[in-house]
Design brief:
297 residues; alpha+beta; 2 domains; 5-stranded antiparallel beta sheet; 12 strands; 22% helix; 24% strand
């Protein structure tokens, strides 16, 4: 009897293992001996399960920086450098200002263009901001009177705020050329004109080669006025110290900066909280907590 039980016991154990889904081959194989020349496995930190807050990418950081500039201008009428903006006295006038986001300098990255136009003339301005990724700060690339024309080759044509000379219908302007090395627009010269139909006294007709009654003054960054004398009447008048040029020389100068580049078409929108959030894909409520401090307290 004992011999029979001894023979049946191993068979019963084998049947039980098969019924539970196991098999003799399912038993774990012995671990190989640890290679003492390789570093031991490091256990994960205790808080490895908690996901770290991802750092914003360059594009997202740029949008957040631009949005902060716009919301601070909208809510506090302050620029990043602390300049106070002329608000016009009402929220309607503030939201009548405009902005656009576009690559205007041709560096492959978008810039912010703030067009602050609802103000007294002295307070009107158009500013181009770029984004400096290493510092995480915006950089002012250009500040001019509103009405800037941007061209596809990185040139910006900025009209003067006044035309109080003798140019008549020709409006004087300054050309700027974007410098990738400095990441700013650099002055490439200005031009004003003299229309003999407006002021004939002293007009240097010997310069007017094409005879259209217009001559031009190509001005550097530091130009000045000087006294001149009308050769026919002897009367003295004051005008630019730079010698005038004819239309052909003026067009050659302009072509050397603008060339055949075409003007960019920008989509400006009113400076409202909703437009800021929509244009830069940043939630309105999130922006309310990231305003620049008001220097005025």
């Amino acid at each position: 009897m004992n011999r029979l039980l001894s023979a049946l016991l191993p068979l019963c154990l084998l049947l039980c293992l098969t019924a539970c889904g196991g098999s003799p081959q399912d038993s774990p194989s012995p671990k190989p001996a640890q290679d003492m020349t390789s570093p031991p496995e490091t256990a994960p930190p205790a808080d490895a399960g908690a996901a770290a807050e991802p750092a914003p990418g360059a594009d997202e950081a740029r949008r957040q920086a631009f949005a902060q500039v716009l919301r601070t201008a909208h809510d506090q009428q302050i620029l990043p450098d602390g300049t106070a903006l002329d608000s016009g006295g009402s929220m309607e006038s503030i939201e009548g200002n405009l902005f656009a986001v576009s690559d205007v300098d041709g560096d492959g990255q978008e810039e912010l263009i703030l067009l602050w136009q609802n103000a007294y003339m002295a307070g009107q301005t158009e500013i181009v901001y770029g984004y400096d990724a290493p510092s995480g700060q915006v950089r002012e690339e250009l500040r001019e009177f509103p009405g800037v024309i941007f061209y596809g080759n990185g040139t910006a044509e900025a009209p003067w705020s006044h035309n109080q000379g003798w140019a008549n219908e020709f409006w004087p302007y300054t050309l700027h050329r974007y410098s990738p090395e400095a990441d700013v627009y650099e002055n490439a010269g200005s031009v004003d004109a003299w229309d003999s139909a407006l002021v004939s006294q002293g007009f240097p007709r010997e310069v007017d080669g094409d005879g259209d009654g217009m001559i031009y003054f190509l001005l550097t960054d530091n130009w000045n006025f000087t006294a001149h004398r009308d050769p026919s009447s002897g009367a003295e008048y004051w005008y630019y110290e730079e010698p005038p040029v004819d239309g052909a020389a003026y067009l050659a100068w302009r072509d050397g900066v603008v060339g055949d580049a075409e003007a960019l078409e920008l989509s400006f929108v009113p400076l409202t909280a909703e437009n800021i959030a929509q244009a830069l894909d940043v939630p309105c409520e999130a922006l309310r907590t990231t305003l620049l401090p008001n220097p005025a307290g």
